[in-house]
Write a structure and sequence with these properties.
The complex is a heterodimer of chains A (685) and B (122). With 685 residues, chain A is an alpha+beta fold. Chain A is built from 18 helices and 28 strands. A twelve-stranded antiparallel β-sheet of chain A has the order 11-12-13-16-9-8-7-6-5-10-15-14. In chain A, strands 1-2-3-4 form a four-stranded antiparallel β-sheet, with no helix packed on it. Helices cover 28% and strands 28% of the residues of chain B. Chain B has a five-stranded mixed β-sheet. The chains are: A alpha+beta (685), B alpha+beta (122). Chain B: Pfam families: SCP2 (PF02036).
Chain lengths: 685, 122
């Protein structure tokens, strides 16, 4: 997101404004009040005596709460003002804004306060495509002291109801207050926007029949979340800042899906485009956060099992056993103009579901959940053998059956041009990317462990292990590019190698599918000049025809990807290499105030000296937020071993010591501590 | 249409156990509204995957309200219940999770392509 954007959020309701607190459809970045994938307010602009306001400061108080200090005109040309304005804004399903005008004169002052209000009810997909063409009817109505902005298309209905605690002159384009403020006195009103669905009730309530959370509950919940989290201390300020920031961001991104058990929440993917359930993002984030917030994994597994595919559906790319890709609640999903009801176009979510289930048990010992998830996990493993294996050769393949609104690439690099040959050509379908085979291998190995220990089915365990061993052997034969000495990005529809050098070879490592003898060669590529920028590993190597340092999946550096690469290197014992990547990403946090964006440019660190932000990157984004947690786990070598937490630290050169206290797990609470041998001062905690 | 719906519930009753519903327990009441202002009621009781259908009144954990024509399309796999819910053509009251679980009992669109059929085809 643009650095000038100010955002607050509560689950899938969020507000993005400029630094004056205004929202305007013409702003250089998307602004507005959004909920359930619909923009309920697109214009919200304040003026005083006909003059727009400029910011002095913006206080981010909580993730759902912010305060703007403003003066008339531009703060750039600021001279002492006789009046100042405070907007204090909260989002808690609905939006509340306390507007205060302060008269600094010793005499009374009169003002015309004007708030322009408008709503375009854009669907998030219309905004992404840049073309907002509503098929339904938008209407505006002054209803006593309430301004009602309404959108109706057949039985689909969304409404924003705007009120003020101090009576206003309300017209169809906003409200005006003619006020007189006494000497050195203040004037205040409370502006509220209610987000309504059917029957005049809140959207969430109208869909679920359950009341929404209050702001006090939100505050209590955040306090408890932070109190429960392990405490981190270190001599590296970047890491400390980023850890604290990430804990709050992860709390903010938690979202209670309409199908959650006991209202428990799971991570949504990222602001502003992905404030919804994404199978892949929720699984990766839950995995990254396991040592710090294991509850996320339990709710992710629960919710994804409730929506597991049971039937063939071409429009939704759905097959039995498949774990979903994306769920939406907006108009485009409702009228099936987009397939997110839910959409299942991911070839990796099903194996990753099993991986998360196993890793969750290893940390928490929650056998009950593992037993309850036996059938969904078996169905996901069965999907790998049947529908996922389009060529019948034991690999996982994907090909969209929905070729108009479905995704071409059903792996984490899901943009259209992400999977290419060295010379830039795009392969035909189906495609089998290399990391998918790693996930499949890992899911089979972990599924075998679960079958043996908890499902009382050693025969099934043996079978899965045989399949995994066979897969590993054939993978190391079929995907290995002899000329380049790395794994192909994918196999094409003829079984030929898609021979681009990419970060996927690093992302493979954490699955364990890589032959031991090849790990050093792979690490050499990852930390070599074609892939490593100094901050992290590029998605696509320099020298590939489609390489572009600011191409979404073809040259940028993704913190999430790097956290898994570092973890994978560590798994194979390459501690120094893992530390080098962890160190680069942690250094990058400094340039983003501790909040890692979705992606940043693949330019050399030496060239730019700072990480170049990817223009439309989401921030906060769940799996970027989660990257810090996985990097901490990796640097400290935290690994569950039965009922003990093993710690085997190796810190990068610029981190002297690092400790994490009260790590929850099957051991109760445990501490993890690491110190560099060459660190001059012994820390006494 | 009413016959399609009755046949669907009969099929559920005969199907007995649904493994996808093993984590689910509760009673769903279907209020199926006809053009004639008459409402047909069906009760689906799920007990850890065991599915039973009844017309006898009992306390529901969740109510699904839908008009007869649309419900006929839904139980035939020609209309999607989730999308219809977002359009307010299907209304859930009570336990939403239970209502969503009912999707496990619904058939997919007729004539959908099975990717396994592509094996060996170049």
């Amino acid at each position: 997101m643009n650095r000038n954007a100010v955002q607050i959020l509560d689950g899938n309701t969020f507000i993005v404004s400029d630094r004056s607190g205004d929202m305007d459809a013409d702003a250089p970045f998307p602004t507005g009040l959004f909920s359930f994938d619909t923009r309920f307010i697109s214009t919200w602009a304040l003026s005083l005596n006909g003059q727009r306001l400029g910011p002095l400061t913006v206080d981010d108080l909580d993730y759902y709460h912010t305060r703007f200090f403003l003066v008339p005109g531009s703060a750039v040309a600021y001279t002492d003002s006789d009046v100042s304005i405070i907007r204090e804004r909260t989002v808690c399903q609905d939006m509340k804004e306390v507007l205060t005008i302060l008269n600094h004169l010793h005499t009374p002052a009169e003002f015309t306060v004007r708030l322009d209000v408008g709503a375009d009810f854009a669907d998030i997909f219309e905004m992404k495509s840049g073309s907002i063409r509503k098929r339904g009817a938008t209407s505006t109505r002054v209803d006593g002291q309430c301004l009602r902005l309404c959108y109706e298309r057949e039985s689909f209905r969304r409404e924003a109801a705007v009120t003020s605690s101090i009576p206003a002159d309300i017209d169809e384009r906003g409200m005006t207050f003619q006020i007189r403020v006494g000497p050195q006195e203040t004037w205040t009103t409370l502006l509220e926007v209610q987000i309504l669905g059917f029957n005049g009730s809140n959207v969430r309530e109208s869909l679920t029949g359950r009341p929404v959370r209050s702001r006090d509950q939100l505050k209590r919940d955040l306090d408890e979340w932070l109190a429960r989290a392990p405490r981190l201390a270190t001599d590296n300020d970047d890491l400390l800042t980023s850890y604290r920031r990430s804990l709050v961001d992860l709390a903010a991104l938690r979202y209670t899906p309409l199908t959650a058990v006991d209202d428990r929440s799971m991570p949504s993917a990222g602001l502003p485009w992905f404030m919804s359930i994404f199978g892949r993002d929720s699984i990766f984030t839950s995995l990254q956060a396991l040592p710090f917030a294991p509850g996320l994994a339990a709710s992710t597994l629960n919710v994804l099992s409730v929506t597991q595919g049971t039937k063939l559906d071409d429009f939704r790319d759905c097959e039995p056993g498949k774990i979903l890709h994306e769920v939406r609640y907006g108009e485009s999903a409702a009228f099936e103009e987009q397939p997110h009801s839910p959409y299942y176009g991911s070839a990796d979510t099903s194996p990753l579901f099993v991986v998360l289930l196993d890793e969750y048990e290893r940390w928490t010992g929650d056998v009950t959940l593992v037993r309850r998830m036996e059938w969904p996990a078996r169905a996901a493993l069965q999907w790998l053998r049947e529908y996922g294996d389009a060529r019948g050769d034991g690999y996982v393949w994907y090909a969209p059956r929905n070729t108009t609104t479905g995704l071409e690439n059903q792996c984490w690099k899901d943009s259209w041009n992400s999977i290419s040959y060295h010379d830039g050509r795009l392969p035909g379908f189906p495609r089998a990317t290399c990391e998918l085979q790693g996930y499949s291998y890992d899911a089979k190995m972990r599924g075998a462990r679960l079958a043996r220990l908890f499902w009382n089915d050693p025969g099934y365990a043996d079978q899965l292990e045989r399949e995994a061993a066979d897969l590993k052997q054939r993978f190391n034969r079929d995907f290995w590019v002899e000329d380049g000495q790395f794994y192909a990005l994918a196999l094409d529809s003829d079984g030929g190698q898609v021979d681009a050098l990419s970060s996927n070879i690093g992302h493979l490592l954490w699955s364990g599918i890589v032959d031991d003898g090849r790990v050093r060669t792979i690490a050499g590529h990852l930390l070599g000049p074609k892939l490593f920028t100094g901050w992290g590993v590029r998605t696509l190597a320099k020298g590939e025809a489609r390489y572009n340092p600011i191409g979404y999946h073809i040259g940028t550096v993704w913190p999430f990807d790097n956290s898994f690469i570092a973890w994978g290197l560590r798994r194979y014992g390459l501690k120094d290499e893992a530390g080098q990547i962890a160190g680069g990403i942690i250094d990058a946090t400094r340039f983003f105030d501790g909040r890692l964006p979705e992606a940043f440019g693949g330019y050399e660190r030496e060239l730019t000296k700072y990480p170049v932000e990817y223009p439309t990157a989401c921030s906060p984004q769940a799996w970027s937020t989660g990257a810090i947690f996985l990097l901490i786990r990796t640097m400290l070598g935290m690994e569950p071993d039965g009922d003990r937490l093993i710690v085997d630290p190796l810190l990068p050169s610029h981190i002297g010591w690092l400790e994490v206290l009260d790590v929850p797990g099957r051991w109760g609470k445990a501490d993890a501590f690491g110190r560099r041998a060459d660190f001059p001062h012994v820390h006494a905690p | 249409m009413a016959d399609t719906i009755a046949a669907f519930f009969d099929g559920l009753q005969r199907g007995g156990h649904n493994r996808y519903l093993e984590e689910v327990s509760g009673v769903i009441r279907f209020d199926v509204d006809g053009d004639d202002n008459a409402t047909d009621r069906w009760f689906l009781e799920i007990k850890n995957g065991d599915v039973g259908v009844s017309r006898e009144d009992r306390e529901p954990d969740c109510v699904i309200r839908v008009d007869r024509a649309l419900f006929g399309e839904i139980v035939a796999g020609r209309a999607n219940m989730y999308a219809a819910w977002l359009r307010n053509r299907v209304v859930f009251e009570g336990n939403t999770r239970l209502a969503r679980s009912f999707e496990f009992a619904l058939p997919g669109p007729p004539g959908a392509h099975d990717p396994r059929q592509d094996r060996g085809r170049r």
